[in-house]
Design a protein that fits this description.
heterotrimer; A mainly beta; B alpha+beta; C alpha/beta; B: four-stranded antiparallel β-sheet; 9 helices; about 30% helix; C: alpha/beta; seven-stranded mixed β-sheet; five-stranded parallel β-sheet
């Protein structure tokens, strides 16, 4: 059971690929392959993408067009914009620089 | 006369001197430029640095040491006065080396300087393994480092802001958006600006960075300063990765890794270039391989204010007595000296430091 | 590495139209875009989405497919998924694609980087669950994802469009909280020929409003005192409308009060900008062809001043004609002749825009936010801090940036720049032009040090 999300997928689905497993913050999610990662995470019920390095405030996607950098996530040690990534199976996604003290 | 001292240039150098004069009860007016002016004060690397300075002029090494020694007290006073801390860390800094030959050659030069300074030049050499204990992220290409215990780094922008705030708090008048067009001395000094305003002053300090090259000659100075571009990079904020600063990289108090800097003789061009950025990135990764995955967030080119020999210039004008040229490349390192020691020299007090070697006589054509 | 006649940055309506036009005139064109598929934001993912959700998104959206079809021809190299992080004079386009840095050399460059949502700093706008209305649209267009319990806040036709699309999709918004007043609309109608010139937009707007009304979506106009509340995420919107205080519980808030040119690339090349009072934003200084003062550098589309998708398409074609003429592929006479009908169409579009600018002005509270409101989302700098920097002598945003870090974060000032300029201008009693804007430098978007360093290795290997 996925958690209740403030967002709903229409019947036409997100980009309607087959579901593939990814992990977010240690949790496994089944997301549509090829979908926009930020949209797919929102639809899957992820509400906080990161905490700011300044005050620790929670943040989630704001612009969905690569301009605001609030949807930053960490994949393979690199901090990237979730709204500029497409879902592929096996993505290991973490909140940026959280609970580990090494960018490598 | 509007003011005891008019200071042309409201960067770290001008404001540090203004702060020191205000503390002595003198009245000060600072004439500062506009938002787009070349401002080394907001582009510099932020080191409070001793090693490698004054290799050919021990007085400069000593002057840097004097400033570094009183920096913490200066920063604490600014912090207390303004309620905004000026972050400073003085637990040593590195000169990282990628070859045994350059490391050895540098050590020999440092030993020579140390002898001239009567032994007060506390450095040690760390081999790769010893360095790795101090800096767990150091890369295998770094053969070793010179750790100099008088080195450190500060947040130069918070220094600038604290000075701007404290100078005003102490009653300093700061006029912004000013372009000084001429300085004359019919009786007292008259400083004319492009907007038509005129400031009268008992004495004038020219601390306008590169602007001194234009204004200086008419005031009786040689002012042979030139721009040298340094490109600087800064990454996203990262968890603690670098312990002590080096000339290659330092981790700033906000978390970003600052990487510097190129030395380019390209005139008044402060742009960044891809080869410049790539070269700096490659060197930083060679020193700290984990940085390969870090995102570059900002970069800039800043123009160093360099004299022919790289040393500061402190000179009173022979043509216009009471006018002083104060300029240097290391405005952050020397901020404490400019705030606490230079006013004695300007006011000819008994405690005045001997700054003879920093005069313009050294530029005389022989 | 081959040199291209023309590099176009951005595959929205201006960039796509320009690419097709320039290629038709014989130019070798590279179209660089950061999205995986063409369309820009207005026609985001149009080739896939029309078949899936065309009925929800409407006929205007479907028009984008004409433009994407125009890219499938010889002479256009579409480099998709490429994040441009620097443009150097001469020209050299530096970008990252699939984790590797690369470069395109081109004789001429057309910037077609479009618009951004105007920053809308309100109390609570950084909370998760608060997004731009454009983001809401992108979620729907590209991904078919809709907010279950959303409130739309602000002003402008886009707000009605997304509301109507949400109605069609079966998840109407909980409410529209509109900041424009009836007086704004009356003034726009009274403006010389405004209603007439804007009739097509007015008719479309009335159609959308009818859809919204049929779905019984409450509309609150002239809203003030807007704040988003919530612990850790958006939970409600609070505001006052017609003398009454309201609080609407919700999960999602979509903000919008107009769009503004995305200036980053143009500013990084030193293109002069001027304040556009009617649109309350900076626009680049261009001639009628979209030409800047830098030889070979053109700008078209919303990045040149907000005109909308149809105007952007026309501007892209006009720029392409002049670029072809400069490249010697079109005679000056043919260039002028082909431009004539385009100019007439452009004039019609821009006249309608003047009507929209008056009818839906930006929200005053978000142009001059309260002291406690965060204006720089990245570095979490408040409006009060910016005003404090002005008291410390900061005349412009670059000094304020040095004093308090506004604009230093990864978004490079995209979502605080105009606010910081406005706050400093007001505090110093200077105009926005006198106050200026952030000096934009590379990287236009973050790039890893590893990618940068690899470009040096490549250069060494080539030597």
């Amino acid at each position: 059971m996925k958690p209740v999300s403030p967002f709903l997928e229409t019947e036409s689905g997100t980009e309607a690929g087959p579901r593939v497993p990814v992990s977010f913050d240690g949790r496994t999610l089944e997301l549509p392959e090829g979908a926009n990662l930020a949209a797919a995470l929102l639809a899957a019920g992820v509400q906080v993408f990161r905490r700011t390095p300044v005050s620790g405030a929670p943040r989630a996607p704001y612009c969905m067009m690569g301009a605001c950098f609030d949807c930053l996530v960490e994949i393979d040690g690199v901090v990237r914009q979730a709204c500029m990534i497409e879902v592929t199976g096996g993505l290991a996604i973490r909140r940026p620089h959280e609970a580990h003290d090494d960018p490598a | 006369m509007d003011t005891d001292y008019a200071i042309i240039g409201g960067g770290v150098v001008g404001l540090s001197v203004a702060w020191g004069l205000l503390k002595r009860g003198l009245t000060v007016t600072v004439l500062d430029g506009d938002d787009g002016a070349f401002r080394a004060s907001r582009g510099n690397f932020g080191l409070v640095w001793v090693q490698s300075k004054g290799m050919t002029q021990p007085r400069y090494a000593r002057w840097s040491q004097q400033s570094a020694a009183i920096w913490a007290e200066f920063a604490a006073e600014l912090g207390a006065n303004t309620g905004q801390a000026v972050p400073l860390e003085q637990k040593g800094g590195y000169d990282l080396h990628f070859s045994e030959e350059t490391l050895q050659a540098t050590v020999e030069r440092y030993e020579g300087l140390k002898a001239k300074l009567g032994g007060d030049y506390p450095f040690e050499v760390l081999g790769h393994n010893a360095l790795r204990k101090e800096e767990p992220h150091i890369g295998p290409k770094v053969v070793g480092a010179i750790l100099h215990h008088q080195d450190g780094h500060a947040n130069p922008l918070k220094l600038l802001r604290a000075l701007a705030a404290d100078v005003r708090r102490m009653g300093g008048r700061v006029l912004t958006g000013k372009t000084v067009t001429g300085v004359s001395k019919p009786d007292g000094f008259r400083i004319a600006c492009a907007d038509g305003s005129v400031t009268g002053a008992g004495k004038v300090i020219l601390s306008a960075g590169l602007g001194a090259a234009q204004l200086g000659p008419a005031m009786g100075f040689k002012a042979p300063v030139r721009p040298q571009r340094g490109q600087v990079l800064i990454t996203e904020k990262l968890p603690k990765l670098i312990n002590r600063p080096s000339l290659i990289a330092r981790q700033v108090d906000e978390g970003g890794i600052q990487i510097g800097a190129t030395n380019e003789e390209v005139g008044p061009d402060d742009r960044v270039t891809q080869p410049g950025l790539s070269g700096l990135a490659a060197e930083a990764i060679a020193a700290y391989p984990a940085l390969a995955r870090a995102q570059l967030v900002r970069s800039w080119g800043a123009l160093r204010v360099l004299s022919p020999d790289g040393l500061p210039i402190y000179q009173e004008s022979a043509e216009m007595p009471g006018a002083y040229l104060v300029t240097c490349h290391s405005g952050i390192t020397l901020a404490a000296a400019h705030a606490r020691l230079l006013p004695d020299w300007l006011e000819r007090s008994a405690a005045a430091p001997d700054l003879e070697v920093f005069g313009e006589a050294r530029f005389a054509v022989s | 590495m081959t040199r291209r006649d023309l590099a176009i940055i951005g595959a929205g309506p201006a960039g796509m139209a320009a690419a097709a036009q320039a290629a038709a005139l014989g130019l070798a064109v590279t179209l660089v875009d950061e999205q995986p598929r063409p369309g820009g934001q207005i026609y985001r993912d149009v080739d896939r989405a029309v078949a899936l959700r065309g009925a929800i998104l409407g006929a205007d959206y479907g028009r984008g497919a004409r433009l994407t079809a125009g890219l499938r021809r010889d002479g256009i190299d579409h480099v998709a998924g490429a994040v441009v992080w620097a443009i150097e004079e001469g020209f050299s386009i530096l970008y990252t694609r699939e984790g590797r840095g690369a470069r395109i050399a081109a004789d001429r460059v057309l910037l077609a980087t479009g618009a951004l949502e105007r920053p809308m700093p309100l109390p609570g706008w950084t909370l998760p669950g608060v997004m731009t209305a454009g983001a809401g649209q992108i979620l729907l267009k590209q991904s078919g994802v809709l907010a279950r319990r959303a409130v739309l806040v602000g002003s402008g036709p886009l707000l009605y469009l997304i509301a109507a699309q949400m109605v069609r999709a079966g998840t109407p918004p909980l409410a529209l909280v509109e900041t424009q007043s009836r007086g704004d609309l009356a003034r726009a109608m009274g403006h010389a020929g405004g209603a007439l010139r804007g009739w097509r937009y007015l008719a479309k707007g009335l159609g959308l409003l009818a859809e919204i009304a049929r779905a019984r979506v409450p509309r609150h106009t002239g809203a003030t005192g807007i704040a988003i509340e919530g612990e850790g995420r958006a939970e409600a919107v609070r505001f006052t409308s017609r003398g009454r205080a309201h609080r609407i519980a919700c999960d999602t808030v979509f903000l919008h009060h107009g769009v503004v040119p995305n200036m980053q690339a143009a500013r990084s090349l030193g293109v002069a900008h001027r304040w556009h009072q009617a649109q309350a934003c900076f626009v680049p200084q261009l001639d009628g062809w979209g030409r800047t003062e830098m030889p070979g550098l053109f700008i078209a589309g919303d990045g040149a001043g907000i005109g909308g998708a149809a105007a952007a398409e026309i501007a892209g074609r006009l720029a392409a004609l002049k670029l072809a003429e400069e490249a010697g592929r079109l005679s000056p006479e043919a260039c002028d002749r082909q431009a004539r009908p385009l100019r007439a169409a452009q004039a019609r579009e821009l006249a309608a825009r003047a009507f929209l600018d008056r009818a839906y002005p930006p929200f005053a509270e978000a142009l001059a936010p309260a002291d406690a409101t965060v204006v720089c989302r990245c570095e979490e700098v408040t409006a009060g801090e910016i005003r404090g920097h002005a008291r410390l002598g900061c005349l412009g945003p670059n000094q304020a940036k040095a004093f308090g870090r506004a604009g230093m974060g990864p978004c490079q000032g995209r979502y605080c720049g105009l606010t910081v300029t406005a706050l400093l201008a007001e505090a110093n009693a200077r105009t926005p032009d006198e106050t200026g804007y952030y000096r934009i430098r590379p990287p236009l978007k973050p790039v890893t040090l590893g990618e940068l360093a690899a470009m040096e290795d490549a250069a060494e290997a080539a030597q």
